[in-house]
Specification:
With 305 residues, the chain is of the alpha/beta class. It has one domain: Spore Coat Polysaccharide Biosynthesis Protein SpsA, Chain A (Alpha-Beta Complex), CATH 3.90.550. Helix content is 28%, strand content 27%. Strands 1, 2, 3, 4, 6, 7, 8, 9, 10, 11 and 12 form an eleven-stranded mixed beta sheet that branches. A two-stranded antiparallel sheet has the order 5-13. α1 runs parallel beside α4.
Length: 305
């Protein structure tokens, strides 16, 4: 049986945060958010870790994270670079932006041989999220459609008071995903939220218990083959219209597959609070949150002995 694999997307440089936030410690023992993510993933049952990085950050990433993780789990590296394109395609002149999260997963095609989960390296998801996702992936029944799982969070458990955020707001019925509405400027509004699509001229209400996607997915191996088939279509259409900034996104790809009626997405909800460092000012709140979780006994004082 193939090992449960978790793909950690770590190629981004964290422009809004002002540095390589993946290697910024969040507790007094030098642990990073990714330490807690991997700790939770391993105790949920995952055995293999695939880090998606750039060659540009390779040495620093391995010294800060990868070399430590390779002592406790099976670790692979995949490099998401702009020139990883299908035959006959080339990088548009002036493009520096990565090709997006779906492209990051497509880059993993040679190192994944079974079900796999996907997370962001700089997001704290909570132990329950890994457990429900792993259990679902390992026991899901084979269906005619692509079987996909998404861990959904209550929106108010994912917001920051330091600025606006982008979230995928899920439309769910009977535990199944109907679609994802991308909202790029969401702000806290008490226990609820509001979003704008015109730079703040007008706002729209969002219930605080709306289900938000934080890019924590579970897929079967065949999903990568579907990405490989769809990427050239993206390059021939969306990328032609916006050659410097368009991205091949996982949520949009899944949404397209839902519309094509070739995929079924189970939404697995979790009561866990999501923590992340979208802005540098978020770090104290993350530190306080992790400290509180340790005090409640969810983590030992020192993760790795």
């Amino acid at each position: 049986m193939a090992k449960g694999t978790i793909v950690v997307m770590a190629a981004g440089m964290g422009s809004r945060y002002g540095g390589l936030k993946q290697i910024d410690p969040i507790d007094e023992h030098g642990n990073l958010i990714i330490d807690f993510s991997i700790y939770d993933a391993l105790r949920a049952g995952f055995e293999k870790i695939v880090f998606v990085i750039k060659h540009q950050i390779e040495a620093e990433f391995k010294a800060s994270i990868g070399d430590r993780m390779s002592k406790i789990a099976d670790v692979e590296y995949v490099y998401q670079e702009l020139d990883k394109l299908p035959a006959g395609y080339s990088v548009p002149e002036g493009r520096v932006k990565p090709w997006g999260t779906a492209h990051a997963i497509l880059c993993c095609k040679d190192v994944i041989d079974g079900p796999f989960a996907v997370i962001n390296s700089d997001d704290y998801y909570g132990p329950n999220a890994y457990k429900v996702l792993y259990d679902h992936m390992m026991h899901a029944e084979k269906a005619d459609k692509y079987g996909i799982a998404l861990v959904g969070y209550k929106l108010h458990n994912t917001l920051t008071d330091k600025g606006s955020v982008a979230r995928g707001i899920c439309r769910v019925e009977n535990g199944k995903l109907l679609g994802i509405d991308e909202r790029t400027q969401i702000e806290m509004d008490g226990e609820n939220a509001k979003y704008t699509e015109d730079g703040g001229k007008t706002y729209h209400f969002l219930p605080g218990d709306s289900i938000a996607s934080m890019n924590m997915w579970g897929y079967e191996r065949a999903f990568i083959d579907e990405l490989e088939a769809r990427f050239p279509r993206f390059l021939d259409t969306t990328a032609v219209q916006n050659p410097l900034k368009s991205e091949f996104f996982l949520p949009i790809t899944v949404d397209d597959m839902l519309r094509d009626k070739i995929a079924s997405v189970d939404v697995l909800t979790t009561p866990d609070k999501w923590y992340g460092v979208t802005y540098a000012e978020d770090k104290p709140a993350v530190q306080a949150g992790i400290k509180s979780l340790k005090e409640k006994g969810l983590y030992p004082e020192k993760l790795w002995k």
